[in-house]
Amino acid sequence: MAGEQDVVIEIQARNPTTGHYIKRNLQTGRIEVKTDGKPFKGVPMNRIVLAPANSAIDPETAQRGEEAVIEYLNKKARQK
Residue 17 belongs to what domain range? Predict the structure, then answer.
């Protein structure tokens, strides 16, 4: 209908250390990662979190940490 705003149920952000785009479904809490360096199509960017890359962490360690956090968060989302 005219005048109604679309409800955003997914947002994405870019991990500056790994270069991956991470998409989160705000209803289910489910997280997906896109590793090709291109953003998800049709998903708005989360502009609130803007952090520089941490040069003290090597990319391999950052990727392992990213995978562990996403696995944990997805597991918690399934338990809801």
Answer: 10-79
Q: Report how far residue 50's alpha carbon sits from residue 40's, in angstroms, rounded to the nearest whole number.
A: 18
Side-chain-facing half-sphere of 43: CA atoms under 13 Å: 21
Could you tell me which residues come within 8 angstroms of residue 3 by beta carbon, excluding any fewer than 6 positions away? none
Q: How far apart are CA 25 and CA 52, in angstroms?
A: 24
| In-domain check, residue 58 | yes
pTM, rounded to two decimals = 0.64
Bridge partners of 25? 10
Give tens-digit pLDDT for 9-33.
899 988 888 889 999 998 888 899 9
- Structure-token match 């962490």, residue found: 57
Contact 14, 26 (CB under 8 A): no
